[in-house]
Amino acid sequence: LLRIASRREPLPLDIWTPGPVRRSSQPWVLMMPGLGGNADQLSWLAGALAARGWPVVVLQHPGSDAQAVKAALNGQRPPPGAETLRDRLADVEAVLSAQQDGHVPIEGDGVVLAGHSLGGLTALFASGAAPLPGLDGRCREALQRLPLHNPSRLIQCQLPEAALPRAAPPPARLRGLILLNSFGSLLWPEPALASLPVPVLMVGGSMDLVTPPLEEQLALFQSVRDHLSRLVVVSGGSHFSPVRLSERDEVLLRLGRELVGTDPLRVQELLVGISRDFLLSLERTAAGETVQQGSVQQAPPPGLPPQRRSQLGVTAFVLDGAAARRWRSGL
Asked: Diameter of the chain by CA atoms?
């Protein structure tokens, strides 16, 4: 628990200390669950990365976690939505500050922000990304029809321009972003993310009915310019593929198969490897590593290679900027 000025009660933190594998260029990772999510739903990724040497802190945001959703279903409070974004950003800033001051016992060479769904949106705002003006007009156009095929637009349009969080400088030593089923196409239409200061790994699922990959992840990725950035589309993956459920997750456990998609446990195993390789690409670049090609020292390959990657019967397509543009032009 971490006491912060913006909350009456201490902020819950799950801290994962790294295993014996440590490298001087390793960043630490700050993770944020999605709307209605708890910290333990991302324990599969936090534990796997910690075992490979990366220190990890997973936030839980009171007011937009599973307890808040349950209270809304019981009629005890309105359902949480985009209005919780300011509190989430304050939580992130407080944890980053506490880590720098030594109050969070985690060390690393810079930080990677990671989040699922609304947690990914929080990571984008926390990285200093400033939404383009004109959100109200884009929302009027987008909501002319009921957004049944992209409910994330309702969240985005809950943020009138006057209430948008102010753009802030990115955290000191921000190394990258990992965005799982994130969204923001109305906030950041192309080319709004061209100035994103770090590489980004965007992950989506072909069966995501909440943040459809064509309208959200692919649309956002078109603006990203860093050569280490990658877009990953999991065949059969859903919006909830990165969520590890327990018996306490009563609401999510009621989801039908069409919203769950391919077995989440198998998807998560695949995403562990992809996340690991993305983080390693950040480390190699920071360390300026070279590889031996005969008698010549050469730079390592530029990041995670574009590829079709299969594991445990699950297939993911890893795309760089050029591959994503070819996919978009072929639609």
From this structure: 70
